[in-house]
Amino acid sequence: MHTLFVVGIGPGGAEFMTEQARSAMEKADVLCGYTVYIDLVAPLFPGKETYTTPMKQEIERCRWALETAQKGKDVAFICSGDAGVYGMAGLLLQLAPRYPEVDIQVVAGVTAALSGGAVLGAPLGHDFCVISLSDLLTPWEVIEKRLRCAAWGDFCVCLYNPSSRKRAGYLQKACQILMKEGKSPETVCGWVRHIGREGQCAKVLSLQELEKEQLDMFTTVFIGSSSTQAINGRMVTPRGYEQKCAW
Fold this sequence. Notes:
By secondary structure, the protein is α/β, with parallel strands linked by helices. The protein has two domains: about 1-105, Tetrapyrrole methylase, N-terminal domain (Cobalt-precorrin-4 Transmethylase, domain 1, 3-Layer(aba) Sandwich); about 110-235, Tetrapyrrole methylase, C-terminal domain (Methyltransferase, Cobalt-precorrin-4 Transmethylase, Domain 2, 2-Layer Sandwich), CATH 3.30.950. The chain is built from eight helices and 13 strands. The radius of gyration is 20 Å and the shape is elongated.
């Protein structure tokens, strides 16, 4: 039986990869993935066979990886961030029953909510939820319902895929929904672009200011809860320790 490693590489820089991820890529005969992700890891493994496909060919890419493993090669399927958070682990496991001779091993990675949160400070110090604003696979009505529920629950919210050329106004709509459902316009928010890569930049701002920002798919957005604070330029969501001691 041959192995298909589904590897989360984090933001992409070598320093963000776990030892387990590096080990899986070393063991693999071939690295498979979206072209941009393979470009990030291929220099670390010179001479290693690679297979890439562009965006929107996820099903074909997964089938190729499973077929290649079934034919006798160990494959590392590369995902950015974590392999299971908006990654390909789920789809590969859905297809797995058709390839009984392939052993699938999911290798965790640092997702953008965590790596981006570290850049901003500690925005996810208490309960939070992660929502993608991409309606490519999820109807906008479902996304809107989840935003409303997040506002009602006073969760910190991490938004993936906040905007693109085809979805230019989605972040603005999301901010409006959150404010309509109870989040204050002064809620502390932040965003990080190109997390862990060249050109990384970040900003802490209010929810009403965030509504006017022009961001893109390379940006991860953080919207605080009612307790989130801006402290020395960092975004912090207290967990409640301050209630147990004198400051």
